[in-house]
Design brief:
heterodimer; A: alpha/beta; Rossmann fold; four-stranded antiparallel β-sheet; B: ABC transporter involved in vitamin B12 uptake, BtuC; 2 domains; 72% helix; globular; binds adenosine-5'-triphosphate; binds magnesium ion
């Protein structure tokens, strides 16, 4: 479903602030695979997701989604294949618009937008049904402006919006990190429910090692713009969160000492 | 001075003619969040195009409106292209187009002029058709007939705009103004939406310019000079009157705001205020209205120091009634 080869991205190239964010990254994901991504701050996780979604243009390499080369396809066209949920609950929804308007925008993903009514009765009943399954009472608040909702409600809505028109690829970037301890597990549960139900190919960035192992069926560790660990199957099943942390730190030190020797 | 209701009806008709300006400014300023000065040029060029078609080509006034619409849309599109494709700052792009439009307005007005360039145009020299002639059969005063025609046109334009802004395209344009990142991530071509919205906005303003010219039987190349401030004043007055951000209400608000503004100016003029003084008063009114959220915020901060109102919006829900 997703094929990435030799992907490269440098920010501020040629200046004093040059940052090599992604350096020759390769990744292949089969349809229905759910991979979690871990890695220290600045490892390039968000940059990778932005490159896949088309928010950034790469400096080199290739990205294929569903057998199609999308490396330089504009973000809004790629969006027909990619659903996203961001860390900041404010980013995924249009705050000044109502719940139903936001959902209608997401429903039209990949379709031609014309002069038909933006929200009609049929959509409303569909939205009510989907919102009802969230169990947050949002089905009563179709006409409420989204910026009156809580962060958890907004993130649940974004989750629904990202998957309303089934995407080929779902990208989640620390999408529970800004939520309070009550809302976060609810969004986590919702994520598993939707991803499993729809069998979505998913990449989820998290800083929670336990979650990285518990959710999905593959775990990737990133460091300095590369994937340095790729766990799945039995190997992953036998890895505990503390082992993962240990490998994380040892690998970091290894790379650091390499750098001191050769850098 | 004796009270003459027709003076105020005339002011109302002027307000209705200007309502398209207010709605156009609402589109760029409130929906797209862009300060678009193109409207100043669009208002003038709309009046010039309509005026010249009526006086030099003998067109029916109503038939000139689609032409004004088209010219205004092209102006908005030009600004949109400069901004989205050439990445020129939106304010600067609109100033560039506005400046260029001034020449075009003069050129259009001067078509058929005996003495080269002219910067004003009389739309009625005794023989030309006038909009209010459509109601010649009604036993009403000239001002009343004008007001009825202007109201009818304003209502039709408002309904059309309401339809557009409630459509799938309308939602996409609004999302582009509210949250561009989100808009792109649901597959909206935000550049196209910006260009479309600027085109529609300036099209509305050019039609408004045509109506103003027809209502006054006169236009000049400088009618756009105060357009931004007058239009903003109408938008803000409308927001005070209507108090709803829903699209339909906001459009009605802009229309009402425009009528209220022009009647208020007429009242001021009746109190011996000079025409030139109204500009300063209008500017002060707009400054006050724009500063109101800031001033209000200061008061709130004093009053409820521990309230959630001062938290960033994404944190409010945690303490607010919606927390879950
Ligand atoms: N738009 C940008 N301009 C310049 N540098 C950037 C930009 N985005 C990211 N970077 C840099 O690229 C590197 C990778 O950043 P990225 O946001 O991908 O890291 P991350 O793995 O998501 O980290 P975190 O866990 O903190 O979210 C960092 O050094 C960062 O400073
Ligand atoms: Mg990140």
């Amino acid at each position: 479903m997703l094929e990435i080869s030799n992907l490269r991205k440098t920010f501020n190239a040629g200046t004093a602030h040059q940052v090599k964010a992604i350096s020759g990254l390769n990744l292949s994901m089969a349809a229905g695979e759910f991979a979690t991504i871990i890695g220290s701050n600045g490892a390039g996780k968000s940059t990778l997701l932005n490159l896949i979604a088309g928010a950034y243009q790469p400096d080199g390499g290739r990205i294929n989604i569903a057998e199609r080369d999308v490396t330089y396809t504009p973000e809004y066209i790629r969006a027909t294949q990619v659903g996203r949920v961001f860390q900041d609950p404010l980013l995924g929804t249009a705050g000044a618009m109502t719940v139903e308007q936001n959902l209608a925008l997401a429903l039209q993903r990949g379709k031609r937008r014309g002069l038909g009514w933006g929200v009609d009765r049929q959509m409303r009943s569909q939205f009510r049904e989907r919102l009802n399954s969230l169990g947050m009472g949002l089905e009563q608040r179709l006409g409420t402006r989204v910026n009156l909702l809580s962060g958890g409600q907004r993130q649940a809505l974004t989750m629904l919006m990202a998957t309303l028109a089934r995407p080929n690829l779902l990208l989640l970037d620390e999408h529970t990190a800004a939520l309070d301890p009550l809302a976060a597990p609810r969004i986590t549960a919702l994520t598993e429910q939707i991803v499993v139900q729809q069998g979505l190919t998913t990449l989820m960035v998290t800083h929670n090692m336990a979650m990285a192992l518990a959710m999905g069926n593959r775990t990737l560790m990133m460091h300095q713009g590369e994937i340095i660990l790729d766990l799945s199957g039995a190997e992953r099943a036998h890895t505990s969160a503390s082992e993962l942390v240990a490998r994380f730190t040892s690998r970091n030190q290894e790379l650091l000492s390499d750098r001191m020797l050769f850098g | 001075m004796a009270f003459n209701p027709d003076t105020y009806i005339q002011a109302g008709a002027t307000g209705l003619a200007y309502s398209g300006l207010a709605q156009g400014i609402w589109l760029s300023f409130r929906v797209l969040n862009l300060p678009d000065l193109t409207v100043a040029g669009s208002l003038a060029v709309g009046g010039a195009v309509s005026g010249i078609l009526i006086t030099a080509a003998g067109w029916q006034p109503l038939a000139t409106l689609p032409v004004a619409l088209l010219v205004g849309m092209l102006a908005g599109l030009a600004t949109g292209l400069l901004h989205t494709k050439l990445k020129i700052n939106a304010l600067l792009a609109s100033i560039l187009v506005m400046t260029g439009l001034y020449t075009i307005t003069l050129r259009v007005m001067s078509i058929g002029a005996a003495g080269g360039i002219r910067s004003e145009l009389s739309l009625y020299n005794g023989t030309e058709a006038q909009l209010r002639d459509l109601l010649a059969w009604l036993p009403l005063s000239v001002q009343q007939r004008s007001a009825i025609i202007m109201a009818a046109i304003a209502i039709v334009l408002t309904l059309l705009l309401y339809w557009l802004m409630s459509s799938q395209l309308g939602l996409a344009m609004r999302a582009t103004g509210v949250n561009e990142q989100m808009a792109r991530s649901v597959g909206i071509n935000t550049d196209n939406m910006k260009m479309l919205l600027l085109a529609v906005s300036n099209g509305m303003v050019a039609v408004s310019g045509a109506l103003v010219a027809q209502n006054n039987s006169y236009t000049d190349a400088n009618v756009g000079n105060t357009a931004i401030v007058v239009g903003l004043a109408a938008v803000i007055l409308g927001e005070v009157v209507v108090r709803s951000a829903a699209v339909g209400w906001a459009l009605i608000g802009a229309l009402l705001g425009s009528v209220i503004y022009h009647i208020a100016v007429q009242i001021a003029l009746a109190q011996q205020v000079q025409v030139t003084d109204t500009q300063l008063v209008t500017a002060l009114l707009v400054i006050f209205a724009l500063a109101l959220p800031q001033i209000g915020g200061q008061f709130k901060r004093l009053g409820q120091r521990r309230s959630t109102a001062n938290l960033p919006t994404h944190q409010r829900g945690r303490l607010g009634e919606d927390a879950d």
